[in-house]
Amino acid sequence: MDPTTALPDDARCPCGSGETFGGCCGPLLAGRSAAPTAQALMRSRYTAFALGDAGYLRSTWHASTRPVSLDLDDDVVWRRLDVLDVRAGGPFDDAGTVEFVARYRSGDARGALRETSRFVREGGRWFYVDGDVGP
Q1: pTM for the whole thing?
Q2: Which residues touch 57 (CB under 8 Å, ≥6 apart)?
Q3: pLDDT tens across 93-132, in order?
Q4: Which intervals hold domain YchJ-like middle NTF2-like (predicted)?
């Protein structure tokens, strides 16, 4: 299934913004628009993980750190995203960081990934560079 059609436009967006998929991450994943901020890109990347859209993840990964391939674990179900802190990464910045916790389930186990992600803007587009995973 095409990840960008996995949700109807009027469904709640997986990123937790409170918006609909069609008014939030859907247009980004479909390539109809670009993320205006680092936080918007991070949220759309979370949604791409939740929907299994490896192509979008690779296309929004900075060329200097982008993996050659990306295999997503089908057993991981991403449940909730909480943004903890945003530093810079606005529409007039060239870099920014977003700290978040992404909660998931894998089989009977539940877990949380806490990361401070780094982003850069080049040619008017935001890209994920890398991140520090924390406790």
Answers
A1: 0.95
A2: 45, 48, 49, 70, 72
A3: 999 999 999 999 999 999 999 999 999 999 999 999 999 9
A4: 37-131
Question: pLDDT by residue (tens digit) across 24-46?
Answer: 999 999 999 999 999 999 999 99
Q: CA Rg, the chain, in Å?
A: 14
CATH number for the domain that contains residue 97: 3.10.450.50
Residue 84's φ and ψ, nearest 5 degrees, are -95, -35
- Alpha-carbon span 95 to 89, nearest angstrom: 5
DSSP 83: E
Q: Which two tokens stand for residue 125?
A: 């587009």
Q: Are 81 and 42 in contact (CB under 8 A)?
A: no
Alpha helix locations (H) across 52-132?
54-59
Number of domains in the chain: 1
- Contact criterion met (CB below 8 Å) for 4 and 29: yes
Q: Which domain range does residue 126 map to?
A: 3-134
- What 3-state class would DSSP assign to 99? strand
pLDDT of residue 1: 47
